[in-house]
Structure formats: structure tokens, C-alpha cells
Amino acid sequence: MTVPIKLSMMVVGDQYIWGQLMAGAVLATVPITILYFLASASSFRDSRPARQGLASLPLQLQIFVRRRVQVAGDEAQARLRHAGP
Fold this sequence. Notes:
Elements: H1 3-9, H2 18-47, H3 59-83
């Protein structure tokens, strides 16, 4: 008998045994969750590129990122000047 069928048998008429139903639902999801995390961790580890910072990006993307960082810094400085002491 599978877990979902056993959980559905815990409903008697219009009465629900909420504590046991929720405990069964948690126990039913634990193995699936563990398998998911193991699979995602191993696939993430295998597909991760080497950390090289901006040097690993194409030149045009490097220029774009540097400009956005500079603009964000300029905007933050302007906000601080207008805020005053």
C-alpha cells in the first residue's frame, strides 16, 4: 500500500485526523526532497564555471556591467548629497 493511499484512508467520513495526516504528508515528502537536493547539488557542481570575475564575460557585457556599476554609484552619491546631514 502506498503512502498517498494510506493517507486517504485516514479520512473517515467528514472527520479528518489533521495531526496524523500532516505528519504523514511530511514523511511522504522527505525522501523526494532529499533526492531533489542531492541531484541538484551534483548537477550544480558539475556545471559551475570557474570563477574569473568579469574577465570570463564577453567584452561588451563587461563594458555594460562596469557602466551600470558606475551609474549606480553615481546615483547613490547624488542621493546622499541631497539627503543632507
